Amino acid sequence: MTDATLNTALTGDTATVWDATVRDYVALLKPRVMSLVVFSGLAGLVVAPGHLHPVLAAVAVLCIAVAAGAAGAINMWYDRDIDALMERTRNRPIVRGRVNPDEALSFGIVLSIGAVLLMGLAVNWVAAGLLALANGFYVFIYTMWLKRRTPQNIVIGGAAGAFPPMIGWAAVTGDVSLGSIVLFALIFFWTPPHFWALALFRSGDYQKAGVPMLPVVAGAEETKRQMLVYTLLLLPLALAPVALGIGGPVYLLTAALLGALFVLCALRVLRSRDDKPAKQMFGFSILYLFLLFAVLIGEHLAV
Amino acid sequence: MSPEHPIDTDMHRRRRGKNLAVLAVLLFLVALIYVVAMVRMSGGALP
Fold first, then answer.
1. Theoretical Cys-Cys bridge with A111: which of A70, A74, A193, A244, CB 3.0 to 4.6 Å?
2. ipTM reported for the complex surpasses 0.85
3. What whole-number distance in Å separates Cα of residue A183 and Cα of residue A237?
4. Domain spanning A20-175: CATH superfamily
5. Are A284 and A261 in contact (CB under 8 A)?
6. pTM
7. Helices (DSSP H) in chain A: which residue ranges?
8. Which 8-state DSSP code applies to residue A303?
9. Best mutation target, A28, A52, A55, A99, to test chain B (most B CBs within 10 A)
């Protein structure tokens, strides 16, 4: 019996042949999302006061990456019905019939538990606990509870993506302190304008899938106003690491400049009737966070 | 036994790729846990 006929026999679906390759399993881990998660986790690790052996630091970053990917795989398992309806997600491995949904779920659970255990055993259990909390938050609170129920889904759910620098910090210090809370808050307040920029030019997709993103529920104008509010809140918040001694003068200048540009992006989106400024703002938001953390890391490594 | 069908060889190639990936991950984990154990037992004295 070949794999194909075996799969057909198991699923009872004559059209289903799970012919996943290694690349499909890698795609389940959402590698593009993972890269920003890893980078922010690394930033928390580098700027935290104290010292962690480089090998253990590498293990901490690996655990953050694997756990984030695992949460992505579980998200793809749960959302496979709506992923099939949206242009942006219709090529995901489960939707394309490349990976068996049950296998994707098992893959995500095993990697999640493995990453948390390795973090606890190799680094410390505070970082492991935060990692478990972040994954649980993303899967249970965001994916299963909020995403299909409220337009505030990504506001509250954004907390899941804000954990990595806090985890990196805890890997070094073994605690949660004001510095790590500020880094958490930075990503937390960055998430709504980032995702709503995407939702603005993909609102048709979300509407088709029945996901109550803010532009679908409250309209584009209200979304644009709220995006501006969040970028204005983010402007002083991004300067807070300087007051806490985490960021230096280069960070201060970068955060002020990037923050002002982010507000300008939001204003352009607010005044515009087409999708182009929202697309540009989405791209800029990724660059914004990447550069802020890059400068934080650079300043600490240069000292 | 039926003669080898193209879908079988394709399937086997993919399965072989997955098996090799699992092997690589397992070997990496063995090496990683060994190095972590050494570092932790040395109390950070190892470079």
1. A70
2. no
3. 9
4. UbiA prenyltransferase (1.10.357.140)
5. yes
6. 0.89
7. 3-11, 22-28, 31-47, 54-78, 80-83, 101-122, 125-136, 153-173, 178-201, 203-209, 214-217, 220-237, 240-243, 249-271, 276-302
8. -
9. A55
